[in-house]
Specification:
Blueprint: E1 4-8, H1 12-19, H2 21-24, E2 29-32, E3 46-49, H3 55-60, H4 62-70, E4 74-77, E5 91-93, E6 110-112, H5 118-122, E7 135-137, E8 144-149, E9 154-159, E10 166-170, H6 174-179, H7 184-199
Parallel strand pairs: 1-2, 1-3, 3-4, 4-10
Antiparallel strand pairs: 5-7, 6-8, 8-9, 9-10
Amino acid sequence: MRKIAVLYGGSSQHHRTYNEPKYNQYIEKLIYLPDFEETSIDEFDVLLLPSQLHMGLVMKSKDKIHAFAEKGGIVVSFGPQPIEWIPEQKWENRETNFWWWLEKGAKSGLVLQQPEHDLFKRFITLNDATWHQHGVYWPPEGADILISTEDGGAVLYVDKVSTAGTWVVMTLDPDFHYGSYFMPATERFLDGFLPWLAEGIV
């Protein structure tokens, strides 16, 4: 099983999500974000950055995160990231429709681009990754888009071309919603995503 470290921001949502026993069993260490610059991450295989971290502190550690990836590490980013710290990041902010499913003939607008991918074959479905959208990424050429909008913007992609490591980048914010006690799909997403991250084919 891969050794996963999670940057811990200290919010109530982070506390509930990453201390929940069924999720915490996959986490080797929670690293308090203000302590991250002085904390060694050499022993870990995966570094997960939750949604809604303090971006000033993330930016201070940008080089450290990139160095981890260049050594072959897996970096996971949850949630929208309007400040550029991800390799070749091209973020497009879009208006969020929180209540799309209440509309007549509602469609999420999400498309599963690679149903044969291990994440979807064994761990989650598109419905488990469907709640609402905050925007899209336009990934670098050669990255694998797993979930997109109908116009091709990436909601979840895997980038193995920008560094020697792997970046799993998404606009989805399951930890915020699970930690806030609403949005059932986010629990299903985490139920599958964290085991995939620990033991699946990334």
